[in-house]
């Protein structure tokens, strides 16, 4: 009888860990677009009622049998430095999982303009400050760096010869920081975008050719559209839970349906996410 009670207690504690994990997303519009999706289903620490990728991730997790408690600390056009300087108090909580997304061009080595442009040192310094901040609250926290995607508009401006060149720099920056700071991992979202182009699933807006039937980028050739946001969340789901995204539904009431995605394209993006993140570790 005592053994039975112990087994039941162990099961309940395991289930609580799987169902009750708290997740915080820190970033900007590369995390909150499309902000109307799932508004009110996640806790917006700025009370702006933003859904976006955190809400898509939560929906995917629920479809996969999980129920994380998701919060977001997001502001358009901002850097990790801005979040640390202005909202450390909101971030300094005992989260189970924290996702950090830097301004899209800050981790680059190649010049990318003024303002929040190229500043690798600041990216690394404030990623480390935020990592230390959340580890002080929970030493067991799982931290992920969110590798964003290459921007077709910067290729068109002549700052890069092709998308792959910008993506190489982003991959080096995020994977290097993840290894040096010994975080749980990094999300190869930008790599997944490039893989979708290479497979003919998505078009590359910076070329005259039509590589695929849909695009992952919006009309500004900068931000993600609904397809891009869905792929981003799929990569996160795959990385955090080491689960198979191809088992997720694409029919009525699914995340794909709520984003108005073509089911066959949603399934193709699930395959990309499955392949880009191996079960035995990072790409």
Automatic annotation (TrEMBL):
Q: Which GO terms describe its molecular function?
A: hydrolase activity, acting on ester bonds
Q: What InterPro entries does the annotation carry?
A: SGNH_hydro_sf (IPR036514)
- The organism sits in which domain of life? Bacteria
Q: What is this protein called?
A: PEP-CTERM sorting domain-containing protein
């Amino acid at each position: 009888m005592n053994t039975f009670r112990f087994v039941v207690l162990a099961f309940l504690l395991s289930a609580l860990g799987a169902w009750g994990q708290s997740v915080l997303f820190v970033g900007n519009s590369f995390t909150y677009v499309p902000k109307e999706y799932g508004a009110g289903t996640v806790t917006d620490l700025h009370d702006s009622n933003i859904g976006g990728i955190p809400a898509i991730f939560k929906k995917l997790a629920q479809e996969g049998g999980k129920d994380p408690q998701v919060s977001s600390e997001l502001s358009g056009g901002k850097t990790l430095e801005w979040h640390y300087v202005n909202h450390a108090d909101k971030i300094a909580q005992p989260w189970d999982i924290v996702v950090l997304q830097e301004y899209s061009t800050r981790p680059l080595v190649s010049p990318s303009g003024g303002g929040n442009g190229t500043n690798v040192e600041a990216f690394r310094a404030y990623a480390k400050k935020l990592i230390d901040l959340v580890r002080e609250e929970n030493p067991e926290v799982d931290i992920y760096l969110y590798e964003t995607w290459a921007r077709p508009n910067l290729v068109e401006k002549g700052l890069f010869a092709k998308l792959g060149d910008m993506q190489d720099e982003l991959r080096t920056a995020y994977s290097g920081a993840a290894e040096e700071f010994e975080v749980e991992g990094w999300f190869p979202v930008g790599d997944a975008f490039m893989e979708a182009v290479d497979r003919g699933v998505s078009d590359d807006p910076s070329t005259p050719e039509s590589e695929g039937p849909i695009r992952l980028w919006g009309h500004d050739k900068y931000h993600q559209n609904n397809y891009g946001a869905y792929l981003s969340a799929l990569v996160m789901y795959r990385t955090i839970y080491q689960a198979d995204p191809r088992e997720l539904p694409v029919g009525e009431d699914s995340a794909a349906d709520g984003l108005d995605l073509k089911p066959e394209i949603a399934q193709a993006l699930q395959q990309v996410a499955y392949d880009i993140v191996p079960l035995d570790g990072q790409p």
